[in-house]
């Protein structure tokens, strides 16, 4: 690991230690966020090519967001667009700001080198497109809008395709990074959160199943936050084998629930067996993730 990466890691540990020493007071949080943001700005200034890549990606996401708003006006009216707008804009601003905040993690996932990649990369761009899908669905939920199953299914398919492609592209181009691991986990959480709430809202997913699906992400997230802020220790964000199985089962179950009416009859026979498998894997997956972090 390079000296630069070591010093940055030590800087983060120092920030967390200071936050703990001041007992997480409002002033301590302000200084923590201000110093973290300054470190992100320093990273961007030291890597102008990476910064320009982030700006291009942000412009693309902004252009697509405008397209979504325009299509919403044309298909559902201006009042629906105005209800969608606050939640969607918040999600997009948060997503791109979070990406900027973590530009320093755009390094090879292996700890052997501290070299920062020159661009955000196609793989991370695909992840951000999935984040846009999640932001759109969350924006509809925040605005109190109903989302038809057909629309949710189309967006879900885009999310699944980008989820498959971003990992494949990262491996083929040798651009697997800690940034990509974090962004992938965050966008998956947001997309599945939105879809779970929409399925509950539409009355096709039992509440207890939806809560279990959310706990799959919330339990490891709480463990990660505890490790990060209270113990000042890094967290392993990589997926586990059980997590992949759980994600696959959940995807298939969502496809069954969102299936068009023409496929509704055969899907009835798959519903219960797939639900049992999904519930079992959703219980095992967070336990495996926490166990991995404890071992590492």
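^ structure tokens above, recovered residues below v
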């Amino acid at each position: 690991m390079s000296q630069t990466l070591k010093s940055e890691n030590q800087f983060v540990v120092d920030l967390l230690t200071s936050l703990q020493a001041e007992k997480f007071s409002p002033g301590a949080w302000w200084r923590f966020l201000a110093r973290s943001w300054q470190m992100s700005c320093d990273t961007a200034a030291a890597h102008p090519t990476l910064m320009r890549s982030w700006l291009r990606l942000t412009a693309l996401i902004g252009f697509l967001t405008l397209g979504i708003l325009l299509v919403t006006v044309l298909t559902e009216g201006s009042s629906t667009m105005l209800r969608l707008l606050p939640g969607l804009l918040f999600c997009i601003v948060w997503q791109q700001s979070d990406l900027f905040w973590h530009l320093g993690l755009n390094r090879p996932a292996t700890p052997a080198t501290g070299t920062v990649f020159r661009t955000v990369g196609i793989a991370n761009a695909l992840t951000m497109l999935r984040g846009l899908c999640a932001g759109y669905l969350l924006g509809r939920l925040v605005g109190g809008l109903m989302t038809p199953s057909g629309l949710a299914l189309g967006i879900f398919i885009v999310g699944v395709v980008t989820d498959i492609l971003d990992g494949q592209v990262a491996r083929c181009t040798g651009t697997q990074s800690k940034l990509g691991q974090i962004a992938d986990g965050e966008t998956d959480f947001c997309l599945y959160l939105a879809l779970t709430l929409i399925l509950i809202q539409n009355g096709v997913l039992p509440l207890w199943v939806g809560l279990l699906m959310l706990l799959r992400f919330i339990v490891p997230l709480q463990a990660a936050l505890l490790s990060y802020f209270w113990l000042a220790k890094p967290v392993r964000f990589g997926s586990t084998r059980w997590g992949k199985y759980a994600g696959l089962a959940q995807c298939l179950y969502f496809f069954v629930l969102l299936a068009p009416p023409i496929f509704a009859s055969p899907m009835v026979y798959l519903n219960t067996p797939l639900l049992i498998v999904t519930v079992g894997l959703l219980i095992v997956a967070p336990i495996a993730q926490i166990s991995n972090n404890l071992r590492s």
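The chain has three domains: 1-46, 47-204, 217-296.
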